[in-house]
Amino acid sequence: MTKIFGEFKALPRNSQEYLIMGFSPSFVPIQQRWRNNGLSADFLADYLATFFPVSDNESINLEQRKEIRGAVSYIANELLENAMKFNDESTQYPISLQFQLYSDHLMLSATNSTPQENVEHFQSFIQELLHCDLQEFYIRQIKRAQENENTTNNNTTGLGLLTMLDDYNAKLGWKFETLQEDSQKIEVVTTMVHLPI
Question: What pTM value is reported for the model?
């Protein structure tokens, strides 16, 4: 069974340039993997920056390159952290981070398995995110994050996703799939971000 939310489009391979990074969720403990998320996101951003060459006398292009690099680093890091944080550790399903470059936009996506009990809550959050007043929701979630800071409540606030929408003018989409591997059902979610360039 497959459910689509937001601006999710099939993952085409018609991009001239793309990169896929795969991570084994059980290869190293999550605490060690956490330290590498920023490095992986920066690698992806640096890789992308090579497609925006700049000569010394092109200060406008240099500024655009810095902005795109910063946006990709932030978004890739958020996608990877969420994929790691909400991964179903009982499966061996790999986590992937993918980037595709087009003439007018970038596409970044992360895919991971997720525990069945998280699916309904996440889909409800997505529905609220897609139909809310963004500024009002952002302020409410900041307050919620501050309240959660003082408790052991581990609920997610989605501030990273809200920042992608608000600060980077990104379009977000999600695909939820139920896969059958051997005798095990695996819930897989792909979060897709379209970033204009």
Answer: 0.88
